[in-house]
Amino acid sequence: MLDPSRIMQRCDALARHSELSQGLTRVFLSPQSRAAGELVLGWMREAGMQARLDAIGNALGRYEGERPGLPCLMLGSHLDTVRDAGKYDGMLGVISAIECVDHLRAQGRKLPFAIEVVGFGDEEGVRFGTTLLGSRAIAGTLDPKVLEARDANGVSIAQALREFGLDPEKVHAVRKRRDELLAYVELHIEQGPVLEAEGLPVGVVSAINGFSRLRVTLRGEAGHAGTVPMKQRRDALAAAAECTLAVERLARAQPGLVGTVGRIEAKPGAINVIPGEVQFSVDVRSPEDAAREQAVAAVRTEIALISENRKIRFEIETLQELGSSACAHWLMGQLEQAVRAEGLRALRLASGAGHDGMAMKAVADIAMLFVRCKAGVSHNPAEAISNEDAGTGARVLYRFMHDFRPDLSA
Ligand code: GLV
Ligand code: MN
Ligand code: MN
Question: Whose CA is nearest to atom 5 of ligand 1?
Fold first, then answer.
C-alpha cells in the first residue's frame, strides 16, 4: 500500500537534518546534506533499489525493469533547501517516488522499463549562487568552469566536492545519454495558491517560468557617520536601496513578471560607518523569455543611472539564466489520465518557481505534477500540505508510472 503517513513522517525525518537547531536549512555539500542523502539511500534500498551517491552528490536509486539495463523513467526532485525552509519543497517529490517504487516491490512487479529515483543535491543554488547543479550534471550541461564558483567563505564547488569525499574530475561521468532516459517526471508542492483556489489536490504543470540571477556590487566610499555631510557622501547601501526599489517598480510594470532582491550585504557593516561597498542579488522571472530579457536590460540601465547620480562604481555579473521550459504534451496527457483515473479534474497550471526539469529538459522530455500546499506558502517554515493530498499525489504518480508508455515517436 502507498502510505501517506510514511511519506509525511519521512519529510519530518529529513527536516531534522538542518544547520539550525530551530528551522530547516540544508545547503549543497554540507554535513547535513550528507546525512539526508544517507537516509534517502537507505529508503531507496528498502524499496528494492540499487542506490548510491553520484559524483556531484545526487542520491540515485535504480529499480530494474523486466530485464536489467533497460532505459529508465526518472522520477524525483531535490534534497537541498533554502534558508529557514519548509520541509516539503523538493523532499516530497523524492519521498513520494520512493513510496511508488516500494509499492511495486511489495507486489513483486517489474515494468517494461527501469525506474530511477533521484534526490538532486542542489536545486536551490543557495550556497554557490548558481543553481540546478545536480540536474545540470546529469543533463550534461554543467560547464566545468562552474565548479570554480565560490560560497560566502570562499570555498569553491570543486573544493567542497573534495571535502565531501567526491572527485570533481568525475563530475562529467554523471551525465546520462538521451537513450538511457525515457522521461523525467517530478512531483512537487505547488508553492502557490492556484490549486487551493480551484479546490483541487493536484495539477499538471504546463511550463516552468524562466529566470535570470544577477550579482551586483556597488562601491562608494566608507566614512564617518557623524562627520561626513550628507551631500558629500557616496553611500553604497543607500544606492542599493534605490536599486532595490527600481527592481520592484520595473517588475510591477509588467504583468506576469516578478523581480526580487533577496540577499544584501553591506560593508563594513557598522552602525557609525557609511557603507562603502554593497553586494546584492537580483532574481527576475517571467513566463515570457523576451519580457524577462527586457526587464533585465532595464534593471541594468537603472543600476547604471543610480550609480552615476551617486558617484558609485558598479559591477553586474550574470550568475545564471534559463529560458522558460515547456512540459512535453505526451507526458502531460499521461499525467492527466492518471489524475482523471483518481476521479479528479485535470487542471493545467504554470510554475512560477524553478525546478530541476529546467535542466533535465536538455536530455529528456519533462513533466511535473503539483500537489496543493496550504495558502500557497513556500520558502517559509510555515509551508504545509495535508496527509490526504500527499496520498493523492503519490497515487497519481504511481498510476502514471505504472501505466507509463514511452513516446515512440522520439
Ligand atoms: C527554487 O525553488 C526557485 O524557484 O528558486
Ligand atoms: Mn525551492
Ligand atoms: Mn523545489
Answer: 354
> What's the farthest any 2 CA atoms get from each other in the chain?
78
Residue 48's CB: how many other CB atoms inside 10 A? 19
Sign of the CA dihedral with 119 first, then 124, 129, and 130 last: positive
Measured distance CA(398)–CA(401) in Å, rounded: 5
Low-confidence stretches of the chain (pLDDT < 70) are: 410
pLDDT for 230: 98
Task: Identify the residue whose cell numbers are 513566463.
Answer: 287
Residue among 57, 296, 40 nearest 49 (CA): 40
Q: Is 125 left (phi over 0), alpha (psi -120 to 50) or beta?
A: left
DSSP state of 201: S
What Cα–Cα distance (Å) separates residue 390 from each residue in 88, 149, 188, 316, 372?
A: 10, 36, 10, 42, 9
- Listed residue (43, 59, 62, 60) closest to 115, CA to CA: 62
Give 199: exposed, middle or buried? Use CB within 10 Å, 0-12, 13-18, 19+. Answer: exposed
Q: 274 and 224 in contact (C-beta within 8 Å)?
A: yes
d(CA 225, CA 222): 9
Pocket test for ligand 1, best of 123, 292, 324, 370 (most atoms within 8 A of CB): 123
| Predicted local distance difference test score (pLDDT) of residue 410 | 64
Residues with C-beta less than 6 Å from any ligand 1 atom? 124, 353-354
Measure the CA–CA gap between 186 and 369, rounded to whole angstroms. Answer: 6
Question: CA 246, CA 249: separation in Å to the nearest integer?
Answer: 5
Question: Phi and psi dihedrals of 192, rounded to 5?
Answer: -150, 180
Question: Is 158 within 8 Å of 168 (Cβ atoms)?
Answer: yes
Look at residue 322 and give its three-state secondary structure.
strand
Q: What's residue 350's pLDDT?
A: 94
pTM of the model: 0.92
d(CA 275, CA 235) in angstroms, rounded, equals 6
pLDDT digits (tens, 9 = 90+) for 40-98: 999 999 999 999 999 999 999 999 999 999 999 999 999 999 999 999 999 999 999 99
Atom of ligand 1 nearest to the CA of 123: 1
Q: Which residue has the cell 544547520?
A: 19
Write down the pLDDT at residue 276: 98
Of 82, 92, 282, the residue with max ligand 1 atoms within 8 A of its CB, to mutate for a pocket test, comes to 82
